[in-house]
Amino acid sequence: MTEYVQCPYERSHRIVESRMQYHLGRCRRNHLDVPKVICPFNVTHVLNEPELEFHVKICSDRKKFEVFCNVDKVPTKMATPPPVPKYESMENWDDEPAVATYNPTQYASEAPVLRTLNGATPSERKQFRERERLRLLHHDERK
């Protein structure tokens, strides 16, 4: 179930909580005369000026901010990363015999596959088709 939140600028506006920040940006432009202040810990917390001091003391997002500010004050024992395990393998690809790279043109010229010639003149294509017909006939005879 979606959680709706009331807009601080207009009581009749009920917005899905995930869209509140977008809505506040638009609604604030329509209510420039309303004296509202924004919480320093969460921009979706828009309050009347007298309420700000109390809100800052009890704001739920203050804890996240405090943790963020005190990250460098964590003891050094926890700041060091855990040791990375060393993985040993008996397999060494450098010891494998050298293998020629795959040449698709050479493979297709020896395999029983249909090939086409693109970007050639009509007479060259005709000669190529004739050579291919003969190649495929001889390939079938070899079997």
UniProtKB/TrEMBL annotation:
Chain positions covered by the region annotation Disordered: 113-143
Organism of provenance: Glossina brevipalpis
Keyword entries, A-Z: Metal-binding, Zinc, Zinc-finger
Domain of life: Eukaryota
Keyword Zinc on entry: yes
Lineage, uppermost ranks: Eukaryota, Metazoa, Ecdysozoa, Arthropoda, Hexapoda
PROSITE patterns given in the database record: ZF_CHHC_U11_48K
Bias (Basic and acidic residues): 123-143
InterPro entries the UniProt entry points to: TRM13/UPF0224_CHHC_Znf_dom (IPR022776), UPF0224_FAM112_RNA_Proc (IPR051591), Znf_C2H2_sf (IPR036236)
Annotated protein name in UniProt: CHHC U11-48K-type domain-containing protein
Domain CHHC U11-48K-type per the UniProt entry, residue ranges: 4-31, 36-63
Molecular function GO labels: zinc ion binding
